[in-house]
Predict the 3D structure of the following.
Amino acid sequence: MKEKQGDLDRVKLSAQQSLAYIRSVMEETRNLAMDYSFYFIMFGTIVLFGTMVSYLLVALSRWTLIPWMWVLVMAVGMAVAMLRSRRMSRQVNLLIRRMLVVTWSMVLVMVVVLCLSFGLIGLLSLSIALAITSASIGMGYAMSAVLGGSITLGLLSLPWWIGSVLIPLAGDWYGPAIMGALTLFFELIPGIIMKRRSIDATRK
Amino acid sequence: MPHESDEESSTFDHRRLDTVLHSRLRLAIVAALASCEFMDFTTLRDVVKATDGNMTTHLTKLEEAEYISIQKEFVEKKPRTSIRLTAKGKEALSTYLTILDGFIGTRR
């Protein structure tokens, strides 16, 4: 009787281990398909670079070049993101991933259109263009949080929305500095943390 | 009518488990593929932490059981192998999970 109970316990333990193993493999696959760290780091870096170049151009009294520089920087970022996304979709494909790509592509298109309307038409001031950009990024994070079920991404949307209010209040001189700070603390640094976690998880 | 002990023993009968999926690596392959639409060979190999040789052997067994479909093609002059779970494979995994749940006495 005791022997039979022992067998049943072993079977239960083995079944529990198998289920836990299946869950971990599924989780790993999902994480692999939802690794945004590359985009966080890439866009964080180019926006920080753009912010610094903007101030440099102001110092050199080359105001007219600023919007063109932003159009160029965002277009390069968009091209790199599209190439990366295309390559990743060949490795592993998930419906949620495609939805996220569409969401962020819309945000990027909106940012490029804003840069163009600021630079080409002069329709918007720099701080207003940055405020709308910040709100769009916040929206991108919020939608990603809902799609991916990530509280962290949801929380990351808050500073961007707060930033969209603060930037116009700060004006054209301090607005880009706020944008740069938002990018550093709520895009680049989270991206680096995500990348490190992803590398650690792969090593395990 | 079966005795209670017979019912209990049938619940814990390991022979009910699908032998194709009872291998740890094949189970991992099927579980990984169940979480996505398809995966390429290299990514799948890295996810399940296997070697190329091991992967080939187990993928062949899964393909023979019609649990997976393997598509080989050239993309930008580079060979690419895409692997996806078939409807039969999804059903087999679902049945396997139901039996495991039965073993530990939980409902999914």
About this structure: Chain B has one domain: 13-98. The beta strands of chain B are 38-40, 68-75, 78-85. Residues 1-9 of chain B have pLDDT under 50 and may be disordered.
